[in-house]
Amino acid sequence: MTRRDLLALTPALLTGAAAPKPNIVFILADDLGYGNLGCYGARQIKTPNIDRLAAEGMRFTDAYAGSTVCAPSRCALMTGFHTGHCRTRGNKYPDLPLRPQDLTVTELLKRGAGYRTGLFGKWSLGNLGTTGHPTRKGFDEWFGFFNQNHAHTYYPEALVDNDTIHMLPANMGTPHDYAPDVILERGLAFLAKPDPRPLFAKFSFTIPHANNELGRDTGNGMEVPSAAPYEAEKWPAPDRNFAAMVTRLDTAVGRIVEALVKAGKADNTLIIFTSDNGPHREGGHDPDFFDDNGPLRGIKRDLYEGGIRVPMIARWPGRVKAGSQTDLRVAFWDFLPTACALAGIATPPGLDGISFLPTLTGAAGQRRHEYLYWEFHERRFAQAVRMGQWKGVRPNAGEPLELYDLKSDIGETRNVAVAHPDVAARLERILATARRESPDWPTGAPSARSGSR
Predict the structure, then answer these.
(1) pLDDT digits (tens, 9 = 90+) for 261-286
(2) pLDDT tens-digit profile of 402-431?
(3) Structural domain includes residue 62
(4) Nearest Cα residue to 31 out of 289, 292, 216
(5) Residues 46, 250 contacting (CB under 8 angstroms)
(6) Domain span holding position 93
(7) Rounded CA gap, 11 and 151, in Å?
């Protein structure tokens, strides 16, 4: 089946039914850790709206990001390929654009199932004028940052509005318009439009990513209009601001749910909330202060669990059981086939992802991954694989494989490779065969102009 054939498929051909297709709202936090939400054990940071999502839906305990940094994680999410196969395998500047042949979930939903589509926030997969720009990858409406570096700025002088520049004159002196707030309002307007078509909306927040440049200049890059509701806490300023950012994100999630309810769309909308990778140590913030990674080892840029295992919540009233929990191992590359299954359209062949719709709805027939694979090309070539209870990590090319039994050691504190040579050998074979070479990401060498984005 060719790309053109896939995009031409109609819902009627695939489902033979006229049932309304569900709306899909995907909410992506930036650098939010596994332990930063109340429903995942956070004690000091308040996240009542996200906790309510979990109470009204399904909480995933073994969900994984596409990568341990922004751009490759988003690439895996949008294309259904893990980082051994997808276009982007590390951060680069300028953003490495998706190519015309890199088919996205948005293109499939729009052209194959009649969805109207919107993206609000951070993209990371193609600057204005490139083949990877959102309006060339299936989004009807796009409002957000120019590129990854621009997304560090919480008070920019301009944003991108589809294919044009949207000026923020109030930020051309004393900062006034907080970009996440401006972007949220645009996304809420998209949800409120009286359009009979099903919608796919991706809210790609930059919270709680640090303004790295501000952090280097001032020691506090956790940029937020106020530290509310934590002004009185005797915490270091960057950590107080970090907490305020997370709670501000939580408020935004509440407003998204409220907008869906007001528009009469909440009951037929699947909301997925998650984070693009593990927590950061940037902008003066100490990830140990709030125990951002919970029981896990590692943070952003690590392929240990703390760098890639993320909170994930799914809410769909009447379809996803309220208060449920699953230990199904899912990863970002599973979203595309899940969205296709929701929309009743064919999933392209040869992807790494598997639909987790049966788990969401409690249906039989859930397929499971034999393994999950990651590689990372920023300052080094690192690899990781999870197979059942086992986790293999090679922090750098040429180093011995580390093996961990996550069933008894979720914190990856004991390397048991010597005690289980058969398992280590099997994971070594996966590391060697689960990928293909890419001219943009040569193995064994640092990626070109990689950085801390």
Answers:
(1) 999 999 999 999 999 999 999 999 99
(2) 999 999 999 999 999 999 999 999 999 999
(3) yes
(4) 292
(5) yes
(6) 3-13+21-361
(7) 36
Residue 67 maps to which CATH number? 3.40.720.10
Query: Would residue 445 count as lying in a domain?
Result: no
For residue 375, give every residue at least 6 positions away whose Cβ sits within 8 Å of its Cβ, in sequence order, or none: 83, 84, 89, 381, 382, 383, 384, 435
d(CA 279, CA 36): 9
The secondary structure of 54-110 as a DSSP string is: HHTSEEESSEE-SSSSHHHHHHHHHHS--TTTSS--S--SSPPPPPTT---HHHIII
Helix axes 237-262, 48-55, angle to 10 degrees: 50
Query: Per-residue DSSP letters for 393-440?
Result: EESSTTSPPEEEETTT-TT-----TTT-HHHHHHHHHHHHHS----TT
- The DSSP 8-state label assigned to residue 112 in this structure reads I
Is 394 within a domain? no
Q: Give dist(CA 241, CA 233) in Å, integer.
A: 11
Query: Which range (8-12, 98-102, 288-292, 429-433) has the least confidence?
Result: 8-12
- What's the total number of domains in the chain? 1
Distance, CA of 341 to CA of 70 (rounded, Å):
26
Q: pTM of whole model > 0.85?
A: yes
Dist CA 96 CA 18 (whole Å) = 40
Q: Is residue 452 part of a domain?
A: no
